[in-house]
Amino acid sequence: QVQLVESGGGLVQTGESLRLSCTASGNIVNINELDWYRQAPGKQRELVATITRRGITNYADSVKGRFTISKDSAKPVVYLQMNSLKPEDTGVYYCAAWIPTPDGRSEYRGQGTQVTVSS
After folding, report:
1. Tens digit of each residue's pLDDT (9 = 90 or more) over 34-62
2. Could you give the CA distance from residue 32 to residue 63 in angstroms, rounded to a whole number?
């Protein structure tokens, strides 16, 4: 089992920045990938950024050049630095951890943190 707790969301204006944190606990040694997702009202979940155990990152085209995912070297925390925020970035952001299993892999999610960008 893995527990994930997100923090750092809030209300900001267009062009401002936020840094989200995702703190993992439990069976973290087996996590091989951590992702940030977001979901806006009435829309499907969108994968925003991923980081692997080895530090390889990937981003959605909509956030490339504005968002940065990173890992804390000393703590089980993954960050999402969000710059130049736009109203379309509004949504609930949550992190997900993936652990390999004999049948594939299991996903663990946090409860999410709300990000609202006003125009």
Report:
1. 999 999 989 999 999 999 999 999 999 99
2. 23
Question: What would the DSSP string read from start to end of 51-64?
Answer: EETT--EEE-TTTT
Q: Which of 4, 3, 115, 11 is nearest to 67 (CA)?
A: 115
Please report, for residues 53, 108, 110, the alpha-carbon distance to residue 99 in angstroms, rounded to integers and kept in the order given: 11, 8, 15
- Closest Cα partner for 34 from 80, 66, 73, 1? 80
Size of the chain, expressed as the number of residues it contains: 119
Q: How far apart are CA 25 and CA 118, in angstroms?
A: 33
Up-side HSE of residue 52: CA atoms within 13 Å toward CB? 5
